[in-house]
Design goal:
Length: 394
């Protein structure tokens, strides 16, 4: 599989790392997603390299490459090299893992056996390696990953895999949906293990899986799988998705990881349980806003009313609620609000001598008028402001 090495070896950053590995004579391998994707005909710039040793000569060599940023070794024996063109290489000491009890983080020990490092991984398709040094290009596939990749199977490496780490259940779904693969019989037997152990893991780990799904083009299919397999329900019985709410997801854009909350929303529309979990201030606000919208008797019948009530509400929550409650005006408001920016500022009004609450009220009126498409230039904003001030002084 020398073509793999050839395809990457001249790229800035990768070239230096490969050079240092050879110079320091470090037994080393490309592993994981990059190998899998290569066999699928794709190239990725997030590379994983496993080394059998960290000789000082290697670390020195890497540090001498001024263009490379090498981040600190973590307790899990890893280094990250950030590539100048974007992407990164994660360098990890080959290790074996032991799970002290189901769902716990693993106890990690170094190993000099490649098959032990590959054997701690999630699925056969992620447990293949291409040697860098000494035998450049040699392919290692102790678990039959290549056959599974060709046949489209997501297969765990051992029985009880999801018991060790139930987040692998989310990973299985991610790969199955992304590649259109099927779960092998051994994987099918793991769902019960995942459901049994999920309640024991931190919400942070589930959140991370949702974050990873957020930017996948088929994220909605993944969420439907999570629903079908009742994974979140096992985390807490009240996390049961509303099928109607799942249908909304394709209609709300997601732009970055923080939009994971949208994917989670269908599972917690009517339960306060979500507020007992670890959330950032922004995440908490999203769910609070969503609940407030869903429980509101009357969302508003005009842009003025909607703006008065929901102006500080998270736009994603607005979009979700508008679709869920079939409220086209709220939907239009949410969409237009994104694109509406006033040229007149609060400071401008204060400089005119307007004070207190009045500033906010005038800005709101200007904003709604602009949102309706009636103010298309600064002149029109100023003219409208003039009318407001004239009327209020009469
Ligand atoms: P992608 O980024 O396309 O999802 P990847 O394979 O690069 O795929 P990472 O999450 O970056 O995924 O993980 C790198 C490798 O580490 C995986 O290929 C897999 O071998 C291993 N791995 C990651 N998470 C786990 C896990 N929870 N259990 C076992 N092995 C894992």
């Amino acid at each position: 599989m020398i073509e793999f090495i050839q395809a990457y070896q001249d790229k800035p950053g990768i070239r230096e790392v490969l050079h240092c590995l050879k110079q320091a004579q470090v037994r080393s391998y490309f592993v994981g997603g990059a190998v899998r994707d290569w066999l699928l005909g794709e190239r990725t710039w997030d590379l994983d390299i496993v080394v059998m040793d960290w000789p000082p000569a290697f670390v020195e060599c890497i540090r001498r490459q001024m263009s490379l940023h090498l981040s600190e070794a973590s307790p899990f024996l890893t280094y990250r090299v950030v590539l100048p063109s974007g992407g990164h290489i994660d360098l990890a000491r080959a290790r074996k893992e032991r799970y002290p009890h189901p769902g716990a983080l693993p106890e990690v020990k170094p190993t000099d056996q490649l098959h032990e490092d590959l054997g701690r991984r999630d699925f056969t398709i992620n447990a293949m390696a291409i040697e860098i040094y000494p035998d450049a290009g040699r392919f290692h596939d102790p678990f039959g990953g290549r056959t599974d990749l060709s046949a489209g199977w997501i297969r765990v490496l051992h029985q009880g895999s999801f018991q060790d780490d139930p987040t692998r259940a989310f990973r299985a779904i991610r790969y199955a949906v992304r590649f259109g693969f099927h779960y092998a019989p051994e994987t099918e037997q793991e769902w019960d293990h995942a459901r049994a152990v999920l309640p024991e893991i931190s919400f942070e780990r589930i959140k991370n899986e949702f974050k990873r799904m957020t930017l996948e083009s088929q994220a909605v299919g993944m969420v439907q799988e999570i629903h079908r397999l009742q994974l979140l329900e096992s985390y807490h019985p009240e996390f049961r998705a509303q099928p109607e709410a799942l249908k909304i997801l394709p209609h709300i854009p997601r732009t970055d990881e923080s939009d994971w909350v949208l994917l989670f929303a269908p599972f917690c529309l009517h339960t306060p349980k979500i507020f007992e979990l670890s959330l950032t201030r922004e995440e908490r606000k999203f769910f609070q806003d969503l609940h407030a919208l869903l429980h509101a008797q009357d969302l508003g019948a005009t842009f003025e009313e909607i703006h008065r009530r929901w102006k500080s509400t998270d736009t994603r929550a607005l979009r979700f609620a508008a679709l869920y409650k079939r409220h086209p005006l709220l939907q239009e408001y949410a969409e237009k609000r994104e694109q509406t920016r006033l040229s007149i500022t609060g400071q401008y009004l204060r400089d005119l001598g307007i004070e207190g609450q009045k500033v906010g009220e005038i800005l709101d009126r200007l904003f709604v008028e602009k949102l309706k498409g009636r103010l298309t230039s600064l002149q029109e904003e100023l003219r409208y402001l003039h009318d407001i001030l004239l009327k209020s002084s009469q």
